[in-house]
Amino acid sequence: METAVVVRVEPGVAWVQMTGTDACNGCGAKLVCKPGSGGTKELAVSNELGAVVNQQVEIVETNRITLKLSLMQFGLPLFGLLLGINLAAQFPAPFVAELWQTICGVILMLLAGSVTYFWSQQVARRGPAFQVKTVLPTTL
Q1: Is 140 among the domain residues?
Q2: DSSP state for residue 80 in the 8-state scheme
Q3: What are the pLDDT digits (tens) for 41-99?
Q4: What would you report as the CA-atom Rg of the chain, rounded to the nearest whole angstrom?
Q5: 20 to 30 Å CA-CA from 134: which of 8, 21, 43, 105?
Q6: Whole-prediction pTM value?
Q7: Is 110 inside any structural domain?
Q8: In total, how many domains does the chain have?
């Protein structure tokens, strides 16, 4: 859960701003955060609670998107690499076997990486991966 300040509101979506700190390294939003001005990060979040500009809110991840993205971005290319190496080992090599396996592994890894890229673009078009969980009380 991260704390942020609402900087603008659109129908159903709030744009929140978080200050970039060392804590960004452990944040689940760092994959979809966009750098803003002055070292701040902006993020579009689902605004079902109706937060307004300048309110402080807590945001949470929806649908475990960070886990899914991590598995797709790292797991699928790795699987492609290993599959390519193993498939190449099943057929006679036209030249040095290790080189043949490496080439096939890299080709399948790049194909899997392309699939991952287009899948992540589809996920990004679906809408915000985070939502406003609570609107924090304002202090005077």
Answers
A1: no
A2: H
A3: 788 888 888 888 988 898 888 777 777 878 888 999 999 999 999 999 998 888 899 99
A4: 21
A5: 21
A6: 0.61
A7: yes
A8: 2
